[in-house]
Amino acid sequence: MFNMKHALFSAFVFAFVLSTYSVANSAEFSIVQQKNGNIAINIDGELFTRYVTNDTVTNKCYFWPIVGPSGVKMTRAYPMKNVKGEKQDHPHHRSVCFGIHSVGGFNTWHERMTFTKNGKVDEKKEATTGRQVHTKVIKAEAKGNSATLITECDNVNKAGEVYMKQTRTVNFHVAENGSRVMDIEIVLKGVNDSITIFGLKDSGLTVRVAHSMCVDAGEGGRIINSNGDIDAGAWGKRVPWVDFNGPVEGKTMGVAMFNHPDSFRHPTPWHVRTYGLFTANPFALHEVGGEKESGDYELKKGKTITLKHRIIFHDGDEKKAEIAKAWKAYSKG
């Protein structure tokens, strides 16, 4: 017998699901290259993130802020902005960034602020600091529910001499469930005859999550990886993905990072800390991964290393966001 109430309810559910799908997929991206050199990536006219290229205080290019689903700020504001309640440690952890502790002795992970105490700079440590110098925008294109930003930067020493080049390709889109996604490919290219990337602990693609989300804040934040390792137990593990989730601005939110099978030394060791650091470090096989070999790598002139990751800023925990399912889809691409 035809059940009118059941049919109406089914139609309502279908319409709701279709509406939700349409909202997620109707996002309109735009990219604005600003006069100061920074590059804004907008969704429906509102800022999603900004690629900062001209911050003279630091030695790196980075993305900040990161505005997640529902307008929630997903990464820590410090040191770009002082926000009450945030933990103000490790000023070189700038939202979403990339750095390497030592390439031929030059450091783009730490920065001058790291070596400054009571207004005085440790000149010996600061002398090893290298810089990432933004040199070119190759592509900045937005089309409907996606956008692509391709840039180049030089790694230079204190004298301004280039010792390594980087090409960064970032593809942005909004997933069907409303998650905001950044696919990041970083290609490192050797310039000198040979230069050593040392396998030290502090290197790689990094997210410094919102403070309230971190485990140490004591507000319910947690770390979980694809093996099911939790919190501090996730540190150093070589796995395809890790998720950091917890409360942000009164909502449960999460940040997942994937390491693509085509990425250098997949699966990467994860330098992920309960205080909010979230880093994929393929170089520290010994210091992070706990393996016998050091992870040092000789990058010869003209040769390249490719690092490929996806970062997902999502509602809810890893189960609600179906991160395991999302990883499977990503790993096949």
Itemize the secondary structure elements and their pairings:
Layout: H1 4-25, E1 29-33, E2 39-43, E3 46-52, E4 62-66, E5 96-100, E6 116-117, E7 120-121, H2 123-126, E8 131-143, E9 146-156, E10 162-174, E11 180-190, E12 194-197, E13 203-208, E14 222-225, E15 241-248, E16 251-259, E17 270-272, E18 277-280, E19 297-300, E20 304-315, H3 323-331
Antiparallel strand pairs: 1-2, 2-3, 3-4, 4-5, 5-13, 6-7, 8-9, 9-10, 10-11, 11-20, 12-19, 13-18, 14-15, 15-16, 16-20, 17-18
Describe the structure.
- By secondary structure, this protein is mainly beta.
- The protein has a single domain (29-331), classed as Beta-galactosidase, Chain A, domain 5 (Distorted Sandwich).
- Helix content is 11%, strand content 40%.
- The protein has three helices and 20 strands.
- Strands 1-2-3-4-5-13-18-17 form an eight-stranded antiparallel sheet, with no helix packed on it.
- A hairpin with a 4-residue loop joins strand 17 (270-272) and strand 18.
- The longest helix is centred in the first third of the chain and has 22 residues, at 4-25.
- The N and C termini lie far apart (46 Å).
- Mean pLDDT is 93; it is low at 7-24.
Question: How many domains make up the 3D coordinates?
Answer: 1
Reading side by side through the largest sheet, how are the strands ordered?
1-2-3-4-5-13-18-17
Please write the CATH class name. Mainly Beta
Summarize the main sheet.
Answer: 8 strands, antiparallel
Briefly say what this structure is.
The protein is mainly β. Helix content is 11%, strand content 40%. The strands form 4 sheets. It has an 8-stranded antiparallel sheet, with no helix packed on it.
